[in-house]
Predict the structure of NDR1/HIN1-like protein 6.
Amino acid sequence: MTDRVHPSAKSNGTTTATTNPTATTAKPPQFPPVKNQMYNPNRIPYRPTPTAYHRHNRRRCSCRRCFCLSCFWSLLVICTLLLLAAIAGAAFYFLFRPKPPTFSVSSLKITQFKLITSSDDATRLSTKLNLTLSAKNPNKKLIYNYDDISMTLQSNNVVISNGSFHGFSNGPNNVTIIHSTLSMASEILDADSVTSLKSDLKRKHGLPLKIFLDTTVVAKMDKLKSKKVGIRVTCEGIHGVIPKGKAPAVASITNAKCKADLRMKIFKWYF
């Protein structure tokens, strides 16, 4: 066999660089392009001009100023109207001194009062009363025109009878006498109402009675005329007993007092 000669792995001070055909040279990292450069490298970024900014602020200030001015003038007009109305009302009051109408009970006679319990345990009430009232107008130049008056007689919130009276005109310093008949025919009462009535009938002074008058009135003076205003008259301090026989029982009206109150209607409620 022949001997092979192998070259030495070590070089004599010199090295030869070995090249790899598949090796690639290192490149610097690539950053994402700017957005403006992505679409249009030559595009100049938008910057709002001071003129447009001031124009926008000026428009906002002008709208706010108009709103404030409209609110101010509206409040000023309302306050002026209220002030004029108050001055006119005060002048009217001091010139004419208007006074509210007054009412009083002249007499109350109970001609019928029956509590009848039927076989079906239903208690029915039948009543009939004659009422006389007086309506006075204490004013010197004011006229009161009343519409039809509805009347209700109660005893401890239990309705005893109902009635009505036609409308009338009450002149200055005039007294109008009202005669009316109040009645109720076979009205069925609940157990609480029957108990209350029977308990009051045992008292010495009899039933405590209260009269309610509801109507509308118009005040008129010369050519001036007010709108219709609701009025409720409440008369208290009346006591009545059941009549014995055919003679009517006269109710006690010594402590009777009547009070007139205005009733303001808002939608479906009265105040």
The longest helix spans residues 50-96.
